[in-house]
What does this fold into?
Amino acid sequence: MARTRDGGDTARHDPALTVTRDALSAVFREEAGKLAASVTRILGDFDAAEEVVQDALLAAWRQWPRDGIPDRPGAWLWTVARRRAIDLLRRDVRFRELTCAASFPVSQADEDDRLMLIFTCCHPALWRGAQVALTLRTVCGLGPAEIARAFLASETAIIQRLTRARRKIATAGIPYRVPAADELGPRLSGVLAVIYLLFNEGYLCSANAAQRRDLTDDAEWLAALLARLMPAEPEALGLLALIRLHRARAAARFDAEGRLVLLRHQDRAQWDHAEIAAAANLVVRAARLRRPGPYQLQAAIVACHAEAASWETTDWMQILLLYDALLSHLPSPVTRLHRTIALAQVLGPQAGLDAADALAGDLDRFYLFHATRAAFLRELGRTAQARQADERALGLTANPAERALLEQRLA
Amino acid sequence: MKYVLLFCGSDEDAAAFAAMTPDELRARYAEVGAWFAEHAAKIGGTNYLRGPESATSVRFGPDGPPVVTDGPYLEGKESIGGYAEIEVADLDEALRMAKTWPGRGTVEIRPVMTQP
It folds into this structure.
């Protein structure tokens, strides 16, 4: 094709037709899961649906940057996908019945479909790594390369993981449906755990990994979707609030040199107070449903911190009570360790240290256990022991931001 | 879908079973009987197996004749104590059945291959 460089570029870069990568990604995320959900329901086959959805998304990926994003991108994708789906169905004995379903795209907007997709991707018969990859792939519409970048894995490994997971769904007979009421509770916990894991994966690495995909975006989007699809589930609201409360304070977590700043020393003016207030309202909305749970309680604890004007004026008594409630739902030594910090604020550093020491059996290999003890020891004036504890902590973490902070304390 | 439930147990499970009093044992057998009765419509062939100490294995190596050994295929602490074929709608229904199995230990759920 003998196109001159100028000619070609002018045609391509007509500003009216320029579609940014971000705009494309946003539309893809909104539409990919819906499309996958509808196609899976109609084909009744997770694996075949994946193929059809991929073809449609690929066609959009080629055409939209050139022609612009259509007014109704979902309908556009559906038209392409339906054509492919019907091709596949021709080989199926149930052809008539199924094409009938495919020609009524009314159900395409039915969001409950995406709920089925989420529950299938997070089925407990799949291991956690497969649940995470499938959810990102199928519900969020991420490509294997993007998932690989987010988890610092190879693309081949992710493709293999996805293939194995889809094969297991088919061969093991994992159903495509929202679980029945009697098992909804534990199954929802599994879904929430996947979303929170995604969030933490993104949140803990945001300092020195600019080239990694920001999974906190995907996690917040998924949590918002779930809260919208399950408005009567307070834990879904709780998780969304928790994620938003963390993100609203993200700007203050690192200093100009990219070093981690502890909550106590963060510049609270940098927090997004409007976002904090909105997220705190979600916690209240969830509480009105009168079914407390670990995500709501964690969100309530973070809200207490986020709404305080300073570390000193924080409502530590309230936080302590919330930790006790959290421990009654979800006993964990790490939660007990966090509780010691609130306890020390209410009863003094010696009480904090005693409570922390009682956890040595469980947490001796955990850097934060030693770092927390070091802080209490320093407050008590036991500097030499504080140093020892910080050194122990340093030997137990490989995270660069955490190491930098400890090295600074030891300098 | 057709599945086979494999009732497995570890040495610890076996020790716990052996430590049960006759009354406890009777109660356990009654629970197991009730479980089979409740799911009778979905259960095909089912059997308890004699213990791994009664097992004999015939192993095929890369070459040479098969070798007969005294003992089970699964070596070590776990063994299969019985199985039940079931016909249910999907994995969720199989899971619901397996979760109510009164025999404790571990229940492995394996789909039966229906097409080549």
